[in-house]
Design a protein that fits this description.
The complex is a heterotetramer, with two copies of chain A and two copies of chain B. By secondary structure, chain A is α/β, with parallel strands linked by helices. Helix content of chain A is 30%, strand content 21%. Chain A has seven helices and eight strands, in the order E-H-E-E-H-E-H-E-H-E-H-E-H-E-H. Chain A has a five-stranded parallel β-sheet with strand order 5-4-6-7-8, with helices on both faces. The longest helix of chain A is centred in the last third of the chain and has 15 residues. In chain B, strand 3 and strand 4 form a beta hairpin. Classes of the chains: A alpha/beta, B alpha/beta. The complex binds cobalamin (2 copies) and pyridoxal-5'-phosphate (2 copies).
Chain lengths: 267, 526, 526, 267
C-alpha cells in the first residue's frame, strides 16, 4: 500500500509519498574537482538537505563549476494553515457580465490601462484589454459593458493618473513585466504614492498584472487585485464587476432588479 | 540531385538477409523441437489455470513451480506437465481449481497418481488445452473490443508514447501511471525489480518493495491493468500496458500477461543470454512458447536489440543490431506471429558528440523502418551517453522524439532527463511526455514532407549497415548462432551454450511421447 | 512524389516584391533627403572625434550633445554640425581634440564663432570628413585582418552561435562573455539597459548598473572588444561583438561601434517606431546614416522583424515579416550596403502547441533563406511562448537550433532555458551553448541531405506567405509606408507620423546649404 | 568593477558575484492554485532561501503541481576549509607504468574485477579492464604489467573472493552501478565484511568504482580507493601501481634500480 498523504506535513514528492525529493542546479565560482564536488555537497547540506546526490559537475568557461543535484528535505509545512487571499470571483460569462452591467450599473464601466515606467511589454496588457483577448477569451474592449482606454507602454505614472481622471475612469489597470531589481514593485508603489499625494487613493479600483505580480503582493502594495501568468480577460472582468457592485452597494444576482444591500451600521 | 521518399536500399540484399536468417533460425527450431524446459511446462500449467501459490519457507511459492518440481523429481516431465495434470484430473474427477487447492491444502501429489490409459489422457489433455486456448482468444477479444470502443491512439498515425514507472511499489506506480496518462502517455511499462529475471518463479501477490523496479506478478499486472482501463475510459484513449518477458520465467510471464490483458511484452532470449547470463538453450526454448502465447493473444513482442548498443559503439554496431533483428523476425514467424505484432527493437544510442551524429541516427532509424515495413518498430531513446546534466539530456530526447516522428517509428520509449541519475520521479516523466507531445504534435506528417538524397551521407550510412549485416549473417550462418554468441558477435558479450543460469531446467523431449497441444493450437511452425 | 533541394517559390513574385519595396523605399529616401536630425549631427561629430563628455547636472554629458544643442539653440543646425565645427576649427586653428577640451574646460561656444567664408569652410569640412572616413576604413581593415588571422567561424558553413550577456555590470559581462566563448559562442551581444533607446544621448564611461542590460557606451564597447579579442586569440577563433543600434542615438551608436570595432548591430528603425514609440521620421533618418556607417565599416546590420512575431500570431504574420524584410533590404541598399552585410531578422515564434508547428517553422525559415540567398540571416529563438518551465524551454531551443542548421541560417540567436524568468545566468547560457554545439555539430551538412516535397505542407505554407506578402506590399505601396504604420500593418502596433519620442530632433535641410560629406564618401544612394 | 570573489564565503553564482543564485524544481502533492504557489514559496523559505521566484507552476496528472523556482541563498561555506581525500596519483603513461612494473615489481600485478550482487552493469568495469579502454585511454588488459580477470556481472561476493585467492590476485576491483536504496553501499560493505570474516582484510588492494562511488565513500567503507564518473583506466593503473610499490616498500622512481625505502622504525 501507499503511505497516506498528510497535508499537515506537506513535502515535495518524487516517487514515494513523503520522500521530500528536490532537484537543484547552481554554479560555484571554482574549478570542477573532487574538492568542488564536496563543496557543493556541503553547500546543499548547509540548506538542510539530506541524501545529497551530486548528479553532475562540469566546467563552465574557466573557474566555474556547474552542478545538478538531487536531494531530500526533511522539513515540511502545514498546508492546511497556508492562507492566501484568493481572487475568488464568480465565473460569469461575458454575456452575463454585460447584462449585469446593463441592468445594474446602467452605464459602461470605464477603464484606463498602461505599462508605466520604462516597461515596453504591452503583450500582457493587450491580452486583457484588446478586442482579440487571450487564450480564446475575448478582451475587455469587446464587452459592451466596458469602455477601455489602453495607453500602451512607457507611460509616466502621472500621465496615467491624469488620463484616468480625464476619462472619469472607474478603474486603473497597471501592467508591469520587467522585474529586474524589483522595478515592478517600485513602479507599482509609485502609482499608489502618487495617488495618495493627490488624495486619490480611494478614487479608482486598482488592478495590477504581470508575470511577477501576485494577488497577495498587489494587496500588500495597496491595489485591489493582482493578476499573473495565465490571467484571462474574463477573470479581470468578473473581478472589476464585483468590485464595482460592492462599491455601489449592489449585488450581482442577475435578477433584473436592483437589490440594495442592507446598510452596514450598528445593529 | 535526386531525392526520394525512401533510402535507396537494395531489395535483393534485404531478401538475402531474410533467407540466411531463416537458415540460422532452423538451428533454433531444431533445439525447440527436441527440448522443453521447466519454465515452458509451468507456463502450460498457468494457461490451464494453476495460478495460486502455497506457503513455502515463508514465501509464497507458485503451484506451477511446485507441480513441475514434483514431476521433475519423479522423472515424469518428459511427457509434459499437462499430461500428468490431465491424468490427475481424470483420475480424481476434480476441476483445475479444485485440484490446485488439494495440492495446496492437502499436499496432493500428482506425480504419484497412477497413470491412466495414455490415449485417454492425451485426448483429455487436448481438451484442457483447447479450453485454455479459447479463454486466451476471449481475453484477446475483450482487449480488441476495448481498443475499438475507446479511441486507439494507433489510428493517429504517429508513434505511441511509451514511458516507464519503476517506484518498486505497485500502488505508487499506479499513481505515477495515472499522471502519465493524463499527460499524454499511450503505453505504460512497469519496470521489474532488479534481477527478477534470475528468479526461477514468478512472485505472487501485489508488491510494495523493489530495487529499481516493481516485481512482475499477476496481481500487479491486474492492478495496473484495471487502473489503465479506468483512466483510459476517462480520457477516452486506450492505454497499453507493458512488462518484461525475458529471463527464467519468460513463457510464464507471457501466460500471465495474456490472462491479464497486457498489450506489449519486452521479449527477447538474446537479452537474457547476453545481459542476464541465462543459459542460451533454456531461454531460446522458453522464448518460442512465450511467442506462441503472444501471437495468439495479440500481444506485441518488443525485441531487445537496443541493448546491444549500450555495450558497443552504436555507430559501429548497426550490423549486429540488424542481423539480430532478422533472426528475431524469423523466431517470431516460427511462432506464428504476424509482422504487425513484432515491435522490432532498436535505439538512438550513438555518442552525441560525434560530428553528424544526427544524420547517422536518422539513417539507422529510417533504414530499420524500411527493412521492416510492417513492423511497429520499438525505438529506444538515448541512455548510455546521458549524464547527470538533465538539461542536455532533455535536449537529446527532443532530437530522439523528432527522429522517431520523422522515421515513423511505431513506439517511442521516451527518454527521461534523469536517465543517468535515478528511475523517474513524477516530474521527470511529466517533462518527458510533454517534450514528446510538443514534438510529435508539432511534426505531425513530417515523414511525408522530405525526400532523402540518394547519394547523401544518410543514404550511404544506411547502405553500409545493410551490407555489413549481410556479411555478418553469412558468417553467423556458417558457424551457427550459438557459436556466434560464444564468440561475442552480439553486444560484444561472450556466452557459452552450457553456461549461464537455468541450464538444468532444460530437458529433452520426443515430440511423440510429449504432450503440449498448445504448439498446434497456437500455430507453431516448429 | 517530387522533391527538390529548394521550395518551389515563384521567382517572378519575389522580383515583384522587390520592385514594390523599392518604390516604398523612395518615400523614405525623400524623407532622408530633405531632413536631418540632432542624432545624425551628433553622429557626425562622433566620427570626427568628439567623444568626450562634460559634467552637467551631476551627469557626464557628451560633448557631441552639448555642441549640437548649442548649434540648435543658435539656429545654426541647418548647415550641419560639421559645417560649424569646421568653421570653429578654421577660426581657432585648433585640432578636434583641442577644441573639444576648450569646450569642456573653458566653455568655448562654437555657435558664437563668426562664420568664415562658406566655400573655405565647406572644403575644410570635406577634409575633416575624409580623415574620419579613412580612419573608419582603417578600423575595418584591422578587423578584417584579425578575422583572417584567427580562424573565422564563418568559414565553417554552419550558423554562428550568438548569445547575450546582460548583467548590467560590464565587468561581470566580461566574465560571462569569456565563459560563453570557452563554451563555444561565436558572437556576444551585450544587451542594453532597459530604455536606453529613449535616452537622447549616449552615456559615458564604463558602467556597472543597469536594468535588464548594460549601458551601451564607448568605454563598455572597448572593454568588451578587448576581452573578446583576447579570448579569441587564446581559442584561435574570431569572436564577434554585437550591440543595439536603434532608438534616439541610432546613428551615434553606429559611429561608436565602427570606432570600437563591433561586428554586428541590431539596427532597425521599425523597432524603435513600433516598440519604443520613437518618432518615425526621426528614426528613419537616423537609420540611413547609421547604415552608411555600417556599410563602410563592414558591420552587419541585424533587422528586427523577429520582434513583430511577439505582438502578433507568428503563424499568421509571416506576410508582414516578409514585407518588412524587403523594405529593410531596400533601405540598406540605399545606404550602399551589400547583401552579405544584411543579417535579415526573423524568428521561430509560433505557438509551440500548434499542430504541425515544426513544419510551418521550417517553411518560414527555408522560405526566408531562399528569398534572401546572399544574406546571413539572423534567426531568433522562440521567446514569447516560453514559460518558467525551463526544461520545456530547452526542448524548444533544441528544435530551434536544428531548424537553424537545416535551413542554413547565418546567425542563430540562441534561446535560454530561463527566457521567461530572468536575463541569463552563467549556467543558463552555458546550457544553451552546449545545446547548440550538440545540434549544430550533430547535424552538420543536414541541409544537403533532404529535399522538400514540392506539394507538401511546408511548400504550400511558404508559398502562401509569399503571396500574402506580395499583396501586403502592394497595399503598403498604395498608401505609403508611414500610413501603413499608422494603420498598424506591422506588429499590430499603430504609430503616427507626428507622434513618438524625438520628433523635435528632426529638422529640414536643403542639401545645397547643408554639409555632410559622409553621404557621398560612404556611397549613399540618397 | 566586480565584487571580488572571497573563497572564505563561497556561494552559488548566477550573474553577480555573491548573489547566491539557485535553481530548483520539485513537485507538491496538491493541485496547482494560488495556495499551492504560496505553499511552494513557504517550502523554499523554510530551507532558508530568499528572493524566491516561483517561475513555473503546472499540473502533473491530477493532484500534483510541478514547480520551477529560482531563489537566492545567504548561507555560504568556507572553501579554504573544505577537505577531501584526493586520489593524487602521479600521471604516468601506460608505457612508464609497464616499465616500472617490469623493473621494480618484476612480475605482472594480478587483478580480479567483478560487479557483485545483482548488478548487471558491466560497461563501467569493462571500460577500465578491457583492452579497448575508455575515452581513448587503453584498458588494463592491454598493459603488459597487469594480468586481468574480469568476472563480469552478477557475481556473488564469495565467488569474487574465492577467485581472487585462486588467482593470487594483488587487487580486487569492484564495480557498483545500481544505487537504488543504497544497494551499492551494502554490496561494497558486503565485500569488506566477508573479507574480514575470512581474515583477508589486508590481503588485497581494494578498489571500488561506479557513478555514485566517491573516493571519500570508498575510504570510509574500508577500500583503498574509489573511482567515479569519468575515471580512466590509467588513473586506476597509476593508483594500483603506487599502492603496490608502497606495499612492497619500493619507490616509483624510474631509475632502473630497486631503491628500498629506509625502514620505518623509532628514530
Ligand atoms: C515579447 C517580449 C518583448 C517584446 C515586447 C513587445 C511588446 N510590445 O510587448 C520586446 C522585443 C519589445 C521586448 C524587449 C525587451 N525585453 Co522583453 N520579453 C518579451 C517576452 C519574450 C514575452 C513577454 C510576453 O509578451 N508574454 C506574454 C504575455 C501574454 O504574458 P504576460 O506579460 O505575463 O501577461 C499575462 C499576465 O502576466 C497578465 N498581465 C500582464 N499585464 C497585466 C495587466 C493587467 C492589468 C492584468 C489584469 C493582467 C496582466 O495577463 C497576461 C495574460 O495572461 C519575455 C520573455 C517571456 N517569455 O516571458 C521577455 C522579457 C519580459 N523581456 C525582458 C527584457 C529584459 C527586455 C529588454 C529590457 C531587453 C533589452 N535590454 O533589450 C527589452 C526592453 C523592453 C522594455 N524596456 O520593457 C526580460 C525581463 C527580465 C525580468 N525578469 O525583468 C524577459 C523576461 C526576457 C528575459 N529573460 O530576459 N521584450
Ligand atoms: C547501459 C545500462 C544498462 C544495460 C547494462 C549493460 C551492461 N552489460 O552493462 C542494461 C540494458 C542491461 C541495463 C539494465 C538495467 N538497468 Co541500467 N543503465 C544503463 C545506463 C544507460 C548506462 C550505464 C553505463 O554503461 N554507463 C557508462 C559507464 C562507462 O559509466 P559508469 O558505469 O559510471 O563507469 C565509469 C565510472 O563509474 C567508473 N567505474 C565504474 N565501475 C568501476 C569499477 C572500478 C573498479 C573502477 C576503478 C571504476 C569504475 O569508471 C567508468 C568509466 O569512467 C544507465 C544510465 C546512465 N546513463 O548512466 C542505466 C542505469 C544505471 N540502469 C538502471 C537500472 C534501474 C537498470 C535495471 C535495473 C532496470 C530494470 N529494472 O530493468 C536493469 C537491470 C540491470 C541490473 N540488474 O543491474 C538505473 C540505475 C538507477 C540507480 N541509480 O540505481 C540507471 C541509472 C538508469 C535509470 N535512470 O533508471 N542497464
Ligand atoms: C528484452 C528485455 N527484456 C528484459 C529487460 C529487463 O531486464 P530485467 O527484467 O532482466 O532486469 C529488458 C531491459 O531493457 C529488455 O530489453
Ligand atoms: C532592432 C532592435 N533594436 C534594439 C533592440 C533592443 O531594444 P532597446 O535597446 O530599445 O531596449 C532590439 C531588441 O530586440 C532590436 O531587435
Amino acid at each position: 500500500m501507499k503511505t497516506e498523504l498528510d497535508l499537515k506535513s506537506l513535502k515535495p514528492y518524487g516517487d514515494t509519498t513523503g520522500d521530500g525529493a528536490v532537484q537543484m542546479s547552481f554554479t560555484l565560482p571554482v574549478e570542477p574537482s573532487p574538492k568542488a564536488r564536496e563543496a557543493a555537497t556541503l553547500v546543499v547540506r548547509e540548506w538542510g538537505f539530506t541524501d545529497i546526490k551530486i548528479a553532475h559537475m562540469s566546467a563552465i568557461g574557466e573557474n566555474y563549476a556547474f552542478f545538478v543535484v538531487f536531494a531530500r528535505c526533511d522539513k515540511s509545512i502545514d498546508y492546511t494553515k497556508v492562507h492566501v487571499p484568493e481572487l475568488s470571483t464568480e465565473k460569469r460569462t461575458y454575456k452575463e457580465i454585460d447584462q449585469i452591467i446593463a441592468v445594474k450599473i446602467k452605464r459602461p464601466i470605464r477603464l484606463v490601462g498602461a505599462c508605466t515606467g520604462y516597461d515596453a511589454h504591452t503583450v500582457g496588457l493587450d491580452a486583457i484589454l484588446n478586442m482579440k483577448g487571450f487564450d480564446g477569451d475575448i478582451g475587455l474592449e469587446r464587452y459592451r459593458g466596458f469602455r477601455v482606454v489602453n495607453m500602451g507602454s512607457q507611460v509616466p505614472t502621472d500621465d496615467l493618473i491624469d488620463r484616468a481622471l480625464k476619462e472619469k475612469s472607474d478603474a486603473i489597470l497597471l501592467s508591469k513585466v520587467v522585474s529586474q531589481k524589483d522595478i515592478h514593485i517600485s513602479d507599482m508603489r509609485d502609482l499608489i504614492n502618487k495617488l495618495k499625494k493627490r488624495g486619490l487613493e480611494d478614487r479608482f479600483i486598482l488592478v495590477a498584472g504581470g508575470p511577477r505580480v501576485t494577488h497577495k503582493l498587489a494587496l500588500e502594495l495597496g491595489f485591489d487585485a493582482g493578476f499573473t501568468i495565465g490571467a484571462r480577460p474574463s477573470d479581470v472582468a468578473n473581478f472589476i464587476l464585483e468590485k464595482m457592485l460592492a462599491k455601489l452597494e449592489l449585488t450581482g444576482d442577475n435578477d433584473g432588479k436592483l437589490k440594495p444591500k442592507p446598510p452596514k451600521g450598528k445593529s | 540531385m535526386a531525392y526520394s521518399a525512401t533510402l535507396p536500399l537494395n531489395a535483393r540484399k534485404i531478401a538475402r538477409c531474410r533467407e540466411i536468417a531463416s537458415s540460422i533460425g532452423d538451428v533454433v527450431a531444431e533445439l525447440v523441437h527436441t527440448n522443453s524446459t521447466v519454465g515452458t511446462e509451468r507456463a502450460v500449467l498457468r494457461l490451464l489455470g494453476f495460478n495460486d501459490a502455497l506457503q513455502w519457507e515463508g514465501l509464497l511459492f507458485p503451484t506451477s513451480n511446485f507441480l513441475v518440481d514434483q514431476l521433475k523429481a519423479a522423472n515424469r516431465l518428459n511427457e509434459g506437465a499437462l499430461y500428468w495434470v490431465a491424468n490427475a484430473l481424470l483420475s480424481t474427477g476434480l476441476s483445475v481449481g479444485e485440484l490446485e487447492q488439494r495440492v495446496i491444502k492437502e499436499g496432493l501429489e500428482i506425480a504419484k497418481i497412477e497413470p491412466l490409459e495414455s490415449a485417454k489422457v492425451v485426448k483429455f489433455a487436448g481438451n484442457l488445452a483447447k479450453d485454455s486456448f479459447k479463454r486466451l482468444l476471449q481475453y484477446r477479444k475483450t482487449r480488441a473490443q476495448l481498443r475499438r470502443k475507446l479511441k486507439d491512439p494507433i489510428t493517429e498515425k504517429r508513434p505511441l508514447k511509451y514511458v516507464i514507472v519503476a517506484t518498486g511499489n505497485i500502488f505508487e506506480d499506479v499513481t505515477q501511471a495515472r499522471a502519465a496518462v493524463r499527460d499524454g502517455a499511450d503505453a505504460i511499462a512497469v519496470i521489474r525489480s532488479t534481477a527478477q529475471s534470475l528468479l526461477d518463479y514468478v512472485p505472487q501477490g501485489t508488491t510494495t518493495e523493489g530495487f529499481g523496479g516493481t516485481y512482475a506478478t499477476q496481481a500487479n499486472f491486474r492492478l495496473m491493468r484495471q487502473a489503465l482501463d479506468e483512466i483510459g475510459a476517462e480520457e477516452n484513449r486506450y492505454i497499453r500496458l507493458t512488462n518484461y518477458c525475458s529471463g527464467l520465467c519468460m513463457s510464464e510471464i507471457a501466460a500471465l500477461a495474456a490472462i491479464e490483458g497486457l498489450d506489449f511484452l519486452l521479449n527477447d532470449a538474446m537479452y537474457g543470454i547476453l545481459f542476464r547470463d541465462i543459459n542460451p538453450r533454456r531461454t531460446l526454448i522458453d522464448q518460442h512458447f512465450s511467442r506462441l502465447i503472444c501471437g495468439v493473444s495479440d500481444i506485441w513482442i518488443m525485441t531487445g536489440e537496443d541493448n546491444y548498443m549500450k555495450t558497443t559503439d552504436a555507430k559501429e554496431s548497426g550490423d549486429q543490431v540488424l542481423a539480430s533483428q532478422f533472426i528475431n523476425e524469423v523466431a517470431a514467424l516460427n511462432a506464428g506471429m504476424t509482422h504487425n505484432q513484432m515491435s522490432i527493437g532498436h535505439a538512438m544510442e550513438m555518442d552525441p558528440s560525434y560530428e553528424k551524429v544526427i544524420l547517422y541516427e536518422i539513417a539507422r532509424a529510417q533504414m530499420t523502418r524500411q527493412i521492416f515495413p510492417k513492423c511497429p518498430l520499438k525505438y529506444m531513446c538515448n541512455t548510455k551517453y546521458k549524464t547527470g546534466d538533465i538539461f542536455t539530456s532533455h535536449a537529446i530526447d527532443t532530437v530522439f522524439n523528432l527522429i522517431g516522428s520523422l522515421t515513423q517509428q511505431g513506439v517511442i520509449l521516451l527518454g527521461m532527463p534523469t536517465e543517468a541519475v535515478h528511475t523517474p520521479w513524477l516530474q521527470d516523466r511529466s517533462l518527458s511526455i510533454r517534450n514528446a507531445n510538443y514534438i510529435v504534435n508539432g511534426s505531425l506528417g513530417i515523414s511525408e514532407e522530405f525526400g532523402y538524397r540518394s547519394d547523401g551521407v544518410i543514404a550511404k550510412f544506411a547502405q553500409k549497415v545493410l551490407d555489413d549485416a549481410l556479411k555478418l549473417l553469412e558468417k553467423i550462418d556458417r558457424m551457427g548462432l550459438l557459436k556466434a554468441i560464444e564468440k561475442g558477435y552480439f553486444a560484444d558479450v561472450r556466452r557459452t551454450i552450457e553456461g549461464g543460469k537455468g541450464a538444468t531446467g532444460v530437458f529433452p523431449v520426443e515430440r511423440k511421447g510429449y504432450t503440449n497441444p498448445f504448439f498446434d493450437l497456437m500455430g507453431s511452425k516448429i
